[in-house]
Structures are given as structure tokens and as C-alpha cells.
Task: inverse folding
């Protein structure tokens, strides 16, 4: 059995006023989604799936040949629909027993966070969440036994909503990366300043 990785990039980004889809905003000369995909790919988890909204050809084109791109047709209704699209893509791959889900607007999540969650699954965890300095963050691992429950989610709620009804193994990922997300241009500028520091 193996663990897949997914990056959700189909959100509306309503608080981001950058004039372009938020995942395409540049950080250190590279798009946010490219940073997120690099972490997922570098983790060696496979397959890697990228969820994009409909009519997002430019966003989809950022994916390399190693990435499976799936269109979240109802992404405007919330992140739950992006998650469903990923699970539908993986459903028929019988040897995938779990998926680690990250977000395109968290460009500093590291590959080791994905690896540590996959290791927790190898030790029996059906749901696991990355912890940074004691705070829950991303990615989140969802075992196949919980995919049906995940498909019942609706609106702008993601994998973390499952933790209200299912125990999650907390996996310390402190030091593997920065879990901050980019919601606004100010968030992006703050990360840009840090990226430029020696």
C-alpha cells in the first residue's frame, strides 16, 4: 500500500487582491503552487494530484508530467469539493491507502511533513495532522477508510472537519517548514521579505 499526496489549488482566494489566481502569485520568482507541488513531489509520495478549478488552463500548466491534474467542477462551493475531486481521482487506484492533503497557498510546507504523516499511516494512523510548535496545521492525512466520510463534507470545510468525529494522530513537524498560509497580499509580501534574506 502507498500514500498519495494532493495539493488543493481550486479555491476562490477572495481575500487575495493580486489581480490573478492566488496560486499563480509569485514568491521568490516562482508561483505559490510551484512551491507547494515541489514539496509534495520531493516527499516521494505517489501519485501527486493537483486540484484546480474549471477553466484554469494556466494553473494546470504549472504541473509537471509527474502530477495528475484533476478539475474540481464545483470548487466555487468550497474546499470540500476540491477534496472530493482528489478522492474521486484516487478511488480506483487500489494500492493507495491514504492521501496527504496540502494547500497551494502554503508555499513553505516542507517535504518532510508529508513524509512524517505517511510514516504515521504506516504505523496505523487513519487520520493524521501536522503539528507546528503545538499548533495543528497542514498537511492532513486521510486514510481510505475515511474517504466516504470526507465525501460527505460540504462548503468551505476541509479535512480538518473530519477531526471533530474521528481521532487524529498529531505528528510533530516543527522545523520541517513554515505552515503559514498566504491569504492576502500583505501575507505574500511578508514571506517575500523573508525569502530575500541571506
Result:
Amino acid at each position: 500500500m502507498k500514500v498519495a499526496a494532493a495539493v488543493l489549488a481550486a479555491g476562490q482566494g477572495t481575500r487575495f487582491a493580486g489581480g490573478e489566481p492566488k496560486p499563480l502569485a509569485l514568491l521568490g520568482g516562482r508561483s505559490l503552487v510551484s512551491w507547494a507541488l515541489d514539496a509534495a513531489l520531493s516527499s516521494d509520495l505517489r501519485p501527486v494530484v493537483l486540484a484546480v478549478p474549471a477553466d484554469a488552463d494556466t494553473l494546470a500548466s504549472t504541473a509537471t508530467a509527474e502530477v495528475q491534474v484533476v478539475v474540481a467542477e464545483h470548487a466555487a462551493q468550497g474546499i470540500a469539493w476540491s477534496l472530493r475531486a482528489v478522492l474521486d481521482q484516487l478511488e480506483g487506484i487500489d494500492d493507495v491507502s491514504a492521501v496527504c492533503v496540502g494547500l497551494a497557498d502554503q508555499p513553505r510546507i516542507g517535504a518532510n511533513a508529508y513524509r512524517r504523516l505517511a510514516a504515521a499511516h504506516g504505523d496505523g494512523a487513519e487520520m493524521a495532522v501536522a503539528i507546528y510548535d503545538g499548533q495543528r496545521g497542514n498537511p492532513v492525512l486521510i486514510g481510505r477508510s475515511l474517504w466516504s466520510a470526507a465525501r460527505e463534507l460540504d462548503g468551505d470545510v476541509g479535512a480538518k472537519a473530519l477531526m471533530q468525529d474521528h481521532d487524529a494522530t498529531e505528528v510533530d513537524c516543527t522545523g520541517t517548514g513554515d505552515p503559514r498560509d498566504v491569504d492576502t497580499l500583505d501575507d505574500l509580501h511578508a514571506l517575500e521579505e523573508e525569502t530575500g534574506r541571506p
